[in-house]
Amino acid sequence: MTSFKFPPVYNYEPFWTIQNHENQRKKQIELWGNLVLAFMKAINKTEMDVITTLDTPLFNNKKLQRRLRKMDAEMIIDNLVATNNAKWLDDQKIRARIIWRTPEQWGTIIYKYIDGIGQNGNVLTFEELINGDEVKKQPFYKIQPDVFLEAVLDLQTKGKARVYQNPTLIESGVKFI
Questions:
Q1: Integer angstrom CA distances of residue 115 from 3, 61, 161
Q2: Does residue 34 sit in helix, strand or coil?
Q3: Within 13 Å of residue 161, how many CA atoms lie on the same side as its CB?
Q4: Domains of the chain (ranges, CATH numbers)
Q5: Per-residue confidence at 44, pLDDT binned at 50, 70, 90?
Q6: Above 70 in pLDDT, residue 108?
């Protein structure tokens, strides 16, 4: 995984029990949301399977022998949805997109990279921009194709890119202007 450094509150036992008092619960859920965003950014992932994640260090503190329940994780993700930092990808609330960077932020990063390597004017495939050896050190390496699409569509609305969509998303192309 990663050498993510959990904040001190992660090893505080009451953090693992959703509080009854409304103000305390609100702050606790906010802390959990910040932890989820930081963790997902550290592992460079934008999608989460809540069921699987219950067994990862994010939602399972083996030192304290504490693990969040699915309903607690849902509450945390619901709060992230309310603040536009996540969206559910299914009605059962099992899969979620965690938005630790907006499409606009991703677009800026991608555009700076393209401009920096002098590839403006060339059509590049999503495959080479997401999975290519040349981008291994870029923050968008291995990004979900639909997140990449949102980013380049944002650039397109600003006149900085032209997207050529293919039914197989990873085979789509983009020309940076």
A1: 32, 43, 12
A2: helix
A3: 30
A4: 8-98 (1.10.10.570), 103-176 (1.10.10.10)
A5: confident
A6: yes
Query: Tell me, what's the pLDDT at 175?
Result: 98
Distance from the Cα of residue 68 to its chain's centroid = 20
User: Which residues partner with 162 through β-bridges?
Assistant: 175
pTM for the full predicted model: 0.83
Chain position carrying tokens 């550290």: 42
Tokens of 131: 């999975």
Tokens 């050190």 locate to 137
Question: How big is the CA angle at 51 (ends 31 and 136), to the nearest 5 degrees?
Answer: 75
- pLDDT tens-digit map of 45-87: 999 999 999 999 999 999 999 999 999 999 999 999 999 999 9
Q: Radius of gyration over alpha carbons of the chain, in Å? A: 19
CA–CA separation, 45 vs 43, rounded Å? Answer: 6
